[in-house]
């Protein structure tokens, strides 16, 4: 039990809950930590006494890295204690306390690897890590300083810090407030996300304060001189090749990056797979420009500002002369999205570390809000900058409907560069062989997957027009032509007594 109390920080968690007089607390565990949930709840109950009710949440509504405010609301929780990996996305309604855990780290081996990078590189080093290793940064810093002194090398190493372990909710992405506590008071301390020295980080990855450029990303914070750029540093990541690392690597894709594998205790310099992801995202942006009907996938109901970005995406799509539909379906997959074949592209509104949804197996591509801004805004070009956090895109300004600008771009439908604002003429003979081959290949692949697949008849500007163009309309019973053999006719009538169901005369 001593291991449980230390690993899950039972005394510190109990102190946090007692200080704020919370009586209904939700404990959120990811799947890999569920085995310890009962032991953690028992240990907390012993510390808190019988006045606090604890509820264990397991299967989260969306992503386990985000605070599950939807699940916590079912038991009227006053606070959520989040265990394990977290994206540290701001909450909307509930305060949260984070226990990241303490993953094992060989300090001496990591320190030697860090100094090897320092000797080989002509750049200063910025050390970043997964939040589960943040506890060891002070020890690593002390060991590297001592080793530098004994080795007579110049120490140009800077360390990031974990931003906070407590979070108060925000009702809007642009205005922060103190959250009222159960006893009627408000609490704000040095660890709170909304304390005076941290509030400026909420709306932007980078902020300038005096002569320092401060960064906040994925729960980590660091600062560099205003005369320096991130490209001047070698980024040294401690941890696994996961979504947190991808968030860092893609956001700072112009920087030199190395990763220290804490399991194998060796350095990895190959991040080419992440650069391939970046190139594919650019391809999806270009493909999304040809879409006419866009589905907005709601991938979170708790991250602060998600309603604002959804409304902004609607305005953006409308200004581009396209139609949008908002879909709430929990965790999206290919089967769920296949129910909306009229949508030619989906915009996934989610936290930064789950925004990159792999859509290779989907019928339609899935893009991020940042990619949607690039695809649907007139005259926008990709400069290489990449953002995964949608809060940095939120603005109070609405795009003008029908705005015009001259822009030549590559169309995957036309198979060449086109002018968006030029009127479409009837010269369909200009369609190249590339476009014809692409359309033919897609049609054959869909046909081979299901011989009874619904054929799309003609162009549609809305879901209603798309439904009318279908050869078979499902539950309405209205169809054109024979019902496919694979369709099974269900029962008719009410559940109390179907029309083809035999009644029991003895009842």
TrEMBL record:
Keywords: Iron, Iron-sulfur, Metal-binding. Pathway: Protein modification; peptidyl-diphthamide biosynthesis. Its cofactor is [4Fe-4S] cluster. The keyword Oxidoreductase does not apply. Residues 168-190 are annotated as: Disordered. Residues 168-186 have a biased composition (Polar residues). One of its GO terms (molecular function) is 2-(3-amino-3-carboxypropyl)histidine synthase activity. GO terms for biological process: protein histidyl modification to diphthamide; response to oxidative stress. GO terms for cellular component: cytosol. It holds the Pfam family Diphthamide_syn. Required for the first step of diphthamide biosynthesis, a post-translational modification of histidine which occurs in elongation factor 2. DPH1 and DPH2 transfer a 3-amino-3-carboxypropyl (ACP) group from S-adenosyl-L-methionine (SAM) to a histidine residue, the reaction is assisted by a reduction system comprising DPH3 and a NADH-dependent reductase. Facilitates the reduction of the catalytic iron-sulfur cluster found in the DPH1 subunit. Belongs to the DPH1/DPH2 family. DPH2 subfamily. NCBIfam families: diphth2_R, DPH2. This is 2-(3-amino-3-carboxypropyl)histidine synthase subunit 2. It comes from Brachypodium distachyon.
